[in-house]
Amino acid sequence: MLSVIIPVFNEEESLEAFYKELSLELAKLKIDSEIIFVDDGSSDDTLDIIKKLKKKDGRISVFSFRRNLGKAEALTFGFQKAKGDIIVTLDADLQDKPKEISNLFKKMKEGDWDVVCGWRKNRKDSIKKIISSKFFNFIASVFWGLKLHDYNCGLKLYSKDAAKSLNLYGGMHRFIPLLVHDQGFTVTEAAVEHDERKYGKSKYGFSKVWKDLPDMFTMLFLSKYSKRPFHFFGVAGAILISLGVIILGYLTWVWILGESIGRRPLLFLGMLLVISGFQSFFTGFLADLIISISSKKQRDFNLKYSSENL
Q: In the prediction, which pLDDT does 63 show?
């Protein structure tokens, strides 16, 4: 069974045309399917339109948030509700074409991939968006070594286990390939057709680059140190303590030589570094303890094979 998840926010203009194209593609695939619309607190007639579509098509399920929570939360909710063995996500603005779902299926079967990401090879967006996207893709590839041309294409195909392993929030939907790759799932990409935006307005601008940077640092920490936070906090604490001890050692020597140090700002800096270092050190220690306890509760999607069902 195929589950199609469509997060929507103020997409009233494109929904009818999008549904027609999606229905044609699902008919060609000849596979049982469900369509899940997750309305992210739209303020236009989006919800009313998808309610009407549901009356026409029993495959459609409609969920609507009370307010705008973000694409990450909408996708996570859709993953939780999906019943299919294969899950596809795409936006309803018709820049990504539903007809490309077949190509992602072919790519998945070629190498038994867990996730196939769409690659907008000939992207039809503004120069600003293209430049910001290329910058983001380059930085992400350098940091994590997962070389993809397009991390943030909304069109993606997932195995059930890969999709349900995701718990997205904030801007984490931009890092989906990294998140699943970090959990051991296989990730690839396939070139897909991309069209100019004909309906509505883009929800993202060039300013999203600055919003991506904090999320990128969060992802860097989660991917590198989420299982061993003491390696990060311990090293940071050791550096701070060392600097503080050097400063205080110098001041102690000056004091022995007979100079007054009580009013020196350097004294307070040394004390602050030592205290901050111990705080960082024990933060890492406590984080390691918490992870050690929680690691005993591993979820089934971490298993690649189990003989229990044989």
A: 94
